[in-house]
Amino acid sequence: MDSPGRRTASRARSRSPRTALTLAASALTALVTVALAAPATATAHPAAARTAPPPSPTAPHTGLVIGARTPARTPGREHAARTFLAGRHAVSGPAWTHHPRLPGSRPTTAAPRAGQVTHNWWGVFPQPGTHDGIMATHTVDPSYTVTDADNVTYAPTTKAQNSCMEVVTAYTNTGNEIWAWDWCGTVGPAKTVPIDDAFLKNYTPGNGGAAAYSVQMVRDDNAANRWSAYLYNYRTAAWDLLFRQSGTDQSGLDHGWDMFEIYASVDPATGEGYYCTEAQRTSFDSSAVQLRRNGAWKPASPSDSPWTDTAPDPNAFLCPPLKFVQAGADDHWTVHQ
Fold it and tell me: Which N-terminal stretch is annotated as signal sequence (predicted)?
């Protein structure tokens, strides 16, 4: 006579395949139900920015950027431009490695480190003699709203070695814009483009991924050091001219850059930079960074475009949750929370 244990085993082995499948399905359903009912124990970070393939650097160069204008001298934009310039002038040495704090307009009793604006950056620095052109694809977030006049996010922002302009994604409390900053003339924003519906329609691919525009800067006259900056128009499949300038680069730096840059002060309510809350769901991404040399375009690489810091400290950016992702071999980076 079989023992109870053996009888149970015998019955289990004698079940039909259909019965076994039914029981397995019931168990799986119960497991899924429990999992869905259980409270979440972690919050997923926003997905990395998805961008369309980069445009060809040799696509036709025709037309002018739609919506580009010579900016009005509004108090808000002038304040942001002065902050930008003060930060660059505070930088010491060609390596541009220290992260200074700048005098601000806040009373000293406002918050810890009040009266100071932290200036910090991270990305890649294309080195002298490695290029006479640069291009990249930069994400934009029209929903990111800056509330405080002393806080500005310039990200991504890019400049070639000795180029006459820097093309900046500028988030200020007066609105979000693309700037062509003139480094060989007025030393300020020479052209601005609002990040509005028209910009998104013409200069981002609209493929359902992260909104991103492509920028290209090239030196087209060596003797005059004349540079041209273009944005890629996805509707016409051509590069549109944003700004052209010649002369002597007055940035005081002999390398280029493609980077995330903040000017931030502490929000007394959080003890962190204002942008740490306001840009909590914003991903700052620069991809397909390429350099032109001797007429040929190649991806930025460790040999010509080193990282500014291989292990940046998010606390030095007044935003402890910030993550710095080296998404490519020096030709793609992402900053997000």
Answer: 1-37
Complete DSSP assignment for 17-67: HHHHHHHHHHHHHHHHHHHHHSPP---PPPPPP--PPPPPTTS-EEEE-TT
Global confidence as pTM: 0.79
Q: What is the CA radius of gyration of the chain?
A: 26
Higher per-residue pLDDT: 31 or 319: 319
In this model, does residue 113 exceed pLDDT 70? Answer: no
Structure token pair of residue 228: 């041209």
Residue type, 331: D
φ, ψ for residue 307 (rounded to 5)? -70, 145
Tell me whether strands 266-267 and 272-273 are parallel, antiparallel or unpaired.
antiparallel
Place of tokens 């942001």: 80
For residue 154 the two structure tokens come to 């310039």
Direct distance between the N- and C-terminal alpha carbons of the chain, in angstroms, rounded to an integer = 67
Residues linked to residue 178 through DSSP beta bridges, in sequence order: 169, 193
pLDDT tens sequence across 302-321: 999 999 999 999 999 999 99
Tokens 């890019």 sit at which residue? 158
CB 299 within 8 A of CB 289: yes
**Burial class, 44, CB count within 10 angstroms (exposed 0-12 / middle 13-18 / buried 19+):** exposed
Residue 131 φ/ψ, nearest 5 degrees: -165, 155
Beta strands in 265-322 (DSSP E): 266-267, 272-273, 284-293, 296-299
Calculated CA dihedral for residues 280, 319, 180, 304, nearest 10 degrees: -120
pLDDT in tens, 211-239: 999 999 999 999 999 999 999 999 999 99
CA distance 300 to 155: 18
Beta carbons of 334 and 285 less than 8 angstroms apart: yes
Q: 156, 123 in Cβ contact below 8 A?
A: yes
Q: Which amino acid is at 127?
A: Q
Tens-digit pLDDT profile for residues 126-136: 999 999 999 99
What span, in angstroms and rounded, lies between the C-alpha atoms of 179 and 56? 23
